[in-house]
Write a structure and sequence with these properties.
The chain is globular. The protein has 2 domains: 103 residues, Urease, subunit C, domain 1 (Roll); 283 residues, TIM Barrel (Alpha-Beta Barrel), CATH 3.20.20.140. By secondary structure, the protein is of the alpha/beta class. The strands form 2 sheets. Strands 1, 2, 3, 4, 5, 14, 15, 16 and 17 form a 9-stranded mixed β-sheet that branches. A hairpin with a 6-residue loop joins strand 1 and strand 2. It contains 13 helices and 17 strands. Bound molecules: zinc ion. Zinc ion binds next to loops.
Length: 419
């Protein structure tokens, strides 16, 4: 049992503030409850003057991009979104081998933990090294102390052998662990692969995790090749039937697509900074608010930054209140709990050393979260009742060693990219 002494706890749902000592149990079913006294000789974290609230969930990440930070740019400027994929990400993911996959997952997990996230929903791609890749990523996340929901990106873009290997790896992984069936995006997925993925998700009781209408080209390709837009194609294939299904982006859904999504039990993950980075536009939520989660799309592990970006980007498209941005940040708890996924109980917490120059209380907490709070305020992080970050230091792994490993693998990856 871990005790947080003299914490000011912000309820992530009601936003109520309550000061006291918190007893945090370990394990998947562990609770966190207020207690009058902290027993002597107990493991104690002093939280005087600190705020404590539920830790964060990254609802759409690509840990495999962690070693891209600072890498050499492509030979020429990409012309559009698909050009970015061809020149950057589809080159990078083909270079990944076992050591790089592990190192990138470790680097991304460290970054996520430092930013207060304890759960990562990841979408992985390593077409030349699919077998065993998800287990490697799971291990890296667990070494840092984080929980996860992983999938492998299935696609037809690298040919039949890579596609079949991906299906085999996905099935093998889902039989051992909680996870999802990953698909790249409609424009690189054939009808037969889509059918296989839907069937696999049904038989393993998993949802799908797929990029949807990220750029206009995804919709245009779908109309050209299948005569319908992306959401209708997915609906007809039975890909929208599970409440475990995550659709990433949805920037170019039209009103009909949004209506189809609203009628389905699937969820939409917004990645505002990535959308800005790729110049694909901004999400128009329009009636879907209660189904929208937030991710980072591999940009970083900082969900407070993602919430602020969602708040800012919404101002030109119908507006969003600070409380709306906070709810979007928190909606992944509903997704995980309603679907029975483990690893995100009330014993996952972040300790914030946040001392604003203005009053902070339940009524203005969301505004503080959007305008004032940032990763620099994350002091300690507790995952499944155990400390993973204590006063700014990762405590479950040797940080220096992990960073050195990541740098060595980044050098290898960048050399391979140049050759
Ligand atoms: Zn993505």
């Amino acid at each position: 049992m871990l005790y947080l002494r003299d914490a000011t706890v912000v309820d992530s749902d009601t936003l109520a503030f309550r000061r006291g000592n918190l007893a945090v149990e370990e394990g998947d079913a562990g609770r966190a409850r207020f207690v009058d006294r902290v027993p002597s000789h107990a493991r104690v974290l002093d939280c005087s003057g600190r705020l404590v609230t539920r830790s964060f969930i990254i609802a759409h990440h690509h840990l495999y991009s962690s070693l891209a930070l600072g890498m050499p740019p492509p030979g020429r400027s990409p012309r559009d979104f698909v050009d970015i994929l061809r020149l950057v990400w589809w080159k990078l993911d083909k270079c990944l081998d076992r050591e790089m996959i592990y190192a990138s997952a470790l680097a991304g997990a460290m970054e996520a933990a430092r930013c207060g996230a304890t759960f990562v929903i990841d979408h992985h791609s390593s077409p030349n090294w699919p077998s065993g890749s998800l287990e490697l990523i799971a291990r890296a996340l667990e070494e840092v102390g984080l929980s996860h929901l992983l999938c492998l990106e299935l696609s037809d873009r690298d040919g039949a052998a890579a596609r079949e290997e991906g299906l085999v790896e996905t099935r093998r992984y889902l039989r051992r662990r909680q996870g999802l069936v990953g698909l790249h995006a409609s424009f690189t997925v054939s009808d037969s692969l889509l059918a296989s993925a839907v069937e696999l998700a049904r038989s393993e009781d998993a949802g799908l995790h797929v990029h949807v209408a990220e750029a206009p080209s995804d919709q245009a390709a779908c109309l050209r090749e299948h005569g319908v837009r992306v959401l209708e194609r997915l609906r007809r294939a039975g890909a929208l039937e599970s409440p475990r299904t995550l659709l990433a982006h949805g920037v170019h859904l039209d009103a009909g697509g949004r209506a189809r999504l609203k009628r389905s039990p699937a969820w939409l993950v917004q990645n505002p900074e990535s959308n800005q980075h790729n110049a694909v536009g901004e999400l128009f939520v329009d009636g879907l608010e209660r189904r929208v989660l937030l991710g980072t799309d591999g940009m970083h592990g900082d969900m407070l930054a993602s919430a602020r970006a969602a708040y800012l980007s919404a101002q030109a498209r119908g507006g969003l209140s600070p409380l709306g941005a906070w709810r979007r940040l928190r909606r992944a708890h509903d997704y995980l709990s309603q679907n029975g996924f483990s690893g995100d109980g009330p014993n996952n917490l972040v300790v914030l050393d946040y001392r604003p120059p203005t009053p902070v209380r339940d009524a203005n907490w969301a505004a503080h979260a959007v305008y004032g709070l940032g990763r620099a305020h994350v002091e300690s992080v507790i995952a499944r009742g155990r400390l993973v970050v204590e006063k700014g230091r990762l405590v479950r792994i040797d940080e220096e060693q992990a960073r050195a490993l990541a740098r060595r693998q980044a050098e290898r990856l960048w050399r391979r990219l140049r050759s």
